[in-house]
Write a structure and sequence with these properties.
Elements lengths: L1 H31 L22 E4 L8 E5 L5 E7 L3 E3 L2 E3 L3 E3 L5 E3 L3 E3 L1
Antiparallel strand pairs: 1-4, 1-8, 2-3, 5-6, 6-7
Length: 115
Amino acid sequence: MLESRKTLKVISSLIIGLSIVGVGSGVAQATLFTAPKLGTAEVVPTDPSIKKGDKIFVVVKDTNNQKVAVYNQNAKKTGAKVTMGSTYTAKAVKKEKIVKINKSQWLNSKDVVKN
């Protein structure tokens, strides 16, 4: 009985000692690990040289909100929105800042690219 207690103590102390050494080496490995370099995000180039008659494609920079605001001819926001991925033909361009997509709706040139 006494001998089994001694072996139990030896085995348990050995397990505790090995687990402490294992945790210490894991921490040492974590501190030596260097994270891989992440690539740069791809940016869709908006084309300020959109002209009348060009096919344009709506892009969104904010992935949570998949809609783009619509403007009037005076570059004031209206309540309407256009979804990402829509394709239009540019009806007119004002000072290369807003692009007309139909009779009364205009889009910011930063929100569209040439298709």
